[in-house]
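pipeline: protein-struct stage 2 | run 1193 | Histidine kinase
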Amino acid sequence: MKSKSLDFRQVEWWIVTTATLIAFLFILFGYRPSFYNDNDQTIFRFVSRIVILATLYAGFHLIHMILIPKFIRENEKWPSIIWIFLTGLVAFGISALFGYQGGLIKNPFPTFFLGIIVLYACYQIGANLLNQALTPPRVRDFQVYNYARLILSYLFSLFFLIQLDPIASPGPSIIFGVFLPGIFISSLYNYFLVYGKRKKGKIAQARLFNWGLVALILLVFLIISVEENQEEIFFVGGLGVAAFIQLIFFPLTSLIFRKLEAYMGQITELTYQVDQGQANMEFLRSQINPHFLFNALNTLYASALMEKAEKTSDGIQKLGDMMRFMLHENQMPKIPISREIDYLRNYIDLQLLRFGNQANLDLDFQINDIECKGEIAPMLIIPFVENAFKHGISTKEKSWIRLNLRCISGSLHLDLVNSVHPVKSKENSRESSGIGLDNLKKRLNLVYPNRHQLNIVSNDSDFFVHFSVHL
């Protein structure tokens, strides 16, 4: 309801179709003649009601669902205008002919048809005004517009049925204007004040609203029965309505609410699992970077040529630990925070093999993990550090990376600042961007909603990150 506008052409079609179906049922069961006993005029009047209703509905469908979209879509407007006019003229002729000949109207001019035309024109104008006033960028989202347009669509259908009173009797408009809103309001009353209170454990309040509604209904019917001096209004109407609400309506709607919430909960859980799995898979792909692995192996190979095997074997061990972490522990929902910090240290040590001897590089890594207890979702810290090494180091200009990681009162805090250098090639730009920080923000919103803080500030020379998460 917030992110986009509803497809109101379809919504309007369904609402008008429902209203037309109600009117058709009232005609069918309220005016159906006995073909053996009734005269021809009675039968023709019944047929006239059906023909007029079918004509009005067919005209609405043709104009609303076909001709108006064609008018909006095509540059040449006149053919659509002519077809709309012809459709209205044919519908007017059929309504006038069958209405007058069937004895439904007193003169050949069907005033109900004119009322429907004016009503439809007013609806189109109102819908256009709502679209101009209540849609982005004038308002923040589509929620108010969607609700207002739904109410307008309902009112159009209600007044459409009122215009059909000479054809289908007042019954459909009463159903649409009283019975359906009553069901809707009663459902909301149950959901928020009875079922909702009971679900939250507020049993006393739920009983108060439940029996308070029953008392109000009985009081209203009692007053009516006293004024009309008819006791059966209270005993049949009041007790009947109260019994229907207590024994049928509230239990049935409560069951529907439970089923719907269970269904929506399953959808939410499945969506969360799919999003998290997709995010983890994308993150894994972004981390197993062949470019980084080849650089690391080349560095280890160069070290092996210049030194004895001690430094090289240490680097190979760190690289092996990192790969095992990425292939196994990275797939788990939570891991000990000590393992995440071990991976961070191995990553930094391998990067230092590449850049540690650069004279223009200032590196400062402070990792205080004494108070770091508990578990954390894997690969939440590395993206910041990887981003710092990718964007913060230049072989020709002065560069720096300063990291401070600590745990305070059950929360992990990371402050990281690095220098910024312009990317020299589009290929390096695509490679360095990867999924990176955007993917990390998505994972944080999924795994730690309202339990993390991420502030990123950048300028021409520095890129600063403050990240904290409640473990």
